Each structure stands twice: as C-alpha cells, then as structure tokens.
Amino acid sequence: MSNFSLREPVNLASTGIASFAKTAICTNLDDLIADIAVIGAPCDISIQGRSGARLGPRGIRLQSTRFSYSPEGSYDPERDDFYLSTKQWRVVDCGDADLVPGDLEASFANIEAAVRTIVSRGAMPVVLGGDHSITIPVARGLDIAGPFHVIHFDSHLDWSYTRGGQRYSNGSPCRCMAAMAHVDKMAHLGIHGIGSSQKSDFADALAYGDLILSPKQIRKIGIAETLARLPRGERYFVSIDIDVMDCSIAAGTGSPMHGGLYYDEMVELLEGVARLGTIVGFDLVEVAPQYDDLSGTTCYLAARLISDFLGFITKERELS
Ligand SMILES: [Mn+2]
C-alpha cells in the first residue's frame, strides 16, 4: 500500500497500513484478481498448550512490512536473481477469515469457504494461522485443487486422534487430512521431541505411507537426499508449523522446541520443495506474538519464510 505523498512515495516499512508485505488489500473475495492471496486464520480455539496464535496473522503482517515487492523484483545477491516482480506477480492481502468466539465449527467454516473461494478465483492461498487445527479447514477448502500430497514441517507429528472426545485440535490436523479423499501421502519433516501424538499414532502414519524425518535424520542424510525421498511431479500442499524451527530463533509459539531446524536449512528445504511440482497453497501456523522476544524475531522469521517460499514458488512458475 502506498502512502499519501505530494512526491513519489517513499513508502518506508514503518509507514502505511500493515497488510502482508504492504501488498494491496482485497477483502471482498468475490472481486479477487490475484496470483497469490494471503489470508489470516486467527483461530486458536483448539490449542492444547499455550494459547495466543490468534494474534499470529497480525504479528506476521507487522513484521512483513519490512519486505515490499517492486516492479523490478527483489534482488537476491546469493542467487544473482530477481524475485516476485510486481509486474509479473500480483500478491494481495485478503484480511482474515472471521473468528467466531467459542465456535470452532463456525470459525472453521469461514476459513474453509475463504480458501475455496480463493482457489476458485484462480489464486494460490497463503494462510496465516492460527493454531495448527486451522490446517483442517484449509485442506478442506483446497479440495478443488486436489488431489495433492502434503509436505508438513513441524516438531510434532500432529496425528493425534482425539482428546476428551474433541477430534479437531492443533495435534490432529494430519490425521484429519489423511481421512480426506483428495489428500494423498504426507511427508513430515522436522519431527522430534514430545508432542500429543503417541507411538500408535506414528504407527498409523507409517501405515498410511507417510515419510517421517527428524532434524537429526535430515542432517545425517543431507537435504538433497531428503528432497529425493519426496514424490516428484505431483501437486503439493505445504503446512509449516513455526515450532519446527529451533526455539532459539522461534520462541514466539505455544510449544517451542529445542533441536529444531535453522533458517538456512529451512530455506534450502523450501526451495527444493518448490521445485518438486505444483504448490497448490500453503499455511504457516502457531506463531504466538505474546511469547516472542521484544524485537519480534519469530514473527519476522515467519514473514521471511513465507516471502522466501513465495519467491521460490513463483520462480519455478517463471521457469516452467
Ligand atoms: Mn503442528
């Protein structure tokens, strides 16, 4: 979003409305014309640990204003290449899917409908969580973009079945996706530490045909071999739980974990995933700004990973 100016607007990061990367705002999805549509799902009703991810979209957006996309594109000196030129790619911010307090079903319905509308308008949805349960309505709304594989980055497997009779929690999105007809196999990358998924849940995931790798295993076999174990030439939905990142660089989340991935590793993985095939959409969940450090490191990391991944996805489309 440009600011009012009598001259050519300077449009500094610290000015203007904090849409994602200061992109244009389109809250009426029926009017959406875009290649990429960012939308918030600020729902944390189903979190099992510390709540707060409902403020994730706002926190990510605030930090994302450090990026702004330009007609010439963003220059990456490492790759000597330009990314996300606004002449080629229209990225818009669609606001949030409305959160209905205390009503998981209604909140999920809003998220699902928003995602399905974005896909039907020909744009790729990028969803800002919210706790990881929001991936359930996101995946439902992506039915018209399926069938697809799932690439899931997380410290936790998220294959739990039920807790106290509640089947839709931030520990169960992968089990819920496995039950969807348009969802194929899943790869769970970065799984380590303690979560709600039990040994039997791991067995169920493996029986479903899923790949599970921890950060240590990824380091041992290398990122190239990790990527080689993923199916190629398919359609993919990517779900990124920010707690896959080591808690030294991602404290602002409900369940921060030691022993996670680091930024350069994650970027290399995301670049490789973008090259696998068609990305139908992705989400980034579990950012809780309340637990972040004063400089907003976790929110900034989330914004950066989203922007990096968008750059890689659009680069592949430019080359194909
Ligand atoms: Mn998760």
TrEMBL record:
<dbReference type="InterPro" id="IPR006035">
    <property type="entry name" value="Ureohydrolase"/>
</dbReference>
<dbReference type="GO" id="GO:0008783">
    <property type="term" value="F:agmatinase activity"/>
</dbReference>
<dbReference type="GO" id="GO:0033389">
    <property type="term" value="P:putrescine biosynthetic process from arginine, via agmatine"/>
</dbReference>
<feature type="binding site">
    <location>
        <position position="241"/>
    </location>
    <ligand>
        <name>Mn(2+)</name>
    </ligand>
</feature>
<keyword id="KW-0464">Manganese</keyword>
<keyword id="KW-0479">Metal-binding</keyword>
<feature type="binding site">
    <location>
        <position position="156"/>
    </location>
    <ligand>
        <name>Mn(2+)</name>
    </ligand>
</feature>
<feature type="binding site">
    <location>
        <position position="243"/>
    </location>
    <ligand>
        <name>Mn(2+)</name>
    </ligand>
</feature>
<keyword id="KW-0378">Hydrolase</keyword>
<feature type="binding site">
    <location>
        <position position="154"/>
    </location>
    <ligand>
        <name>Mn(2+)</name>
    </ligand>
</feature>
<dbReference type="InterPro" id="IPR023696">
    <property type="entry name" value="Ureohydrolase_dom_sf"/>
</dbReference>
<feature type="binding site">
    <location>
        <position position="132"/>
    </location>
    <ligand>
        <name>Mn(2+)</name>
    </ligand>
</feature>
<protein>
    <recommendedName>
        <fullName>Agmatinase</fullName>
    </recommendedName>
</protein>
<dbReference type="Pfam" id="PF00491">
    <property type="entry name" value="Arginase"/>
</dbReference>
<comment type="similarity">
    <text>Belongs to the arginase family.</text>
</comment>
<dbReference type="GO" id="GO:0046872">
    <property type="term" value="F:metal ion binding"/>
</dbReference>
<feature type="binding site">
    <location>
        <position position="158"/>
    </location>
    <ligand>
        <name>Mn(2+)</name>
    </ligand>
</feature>
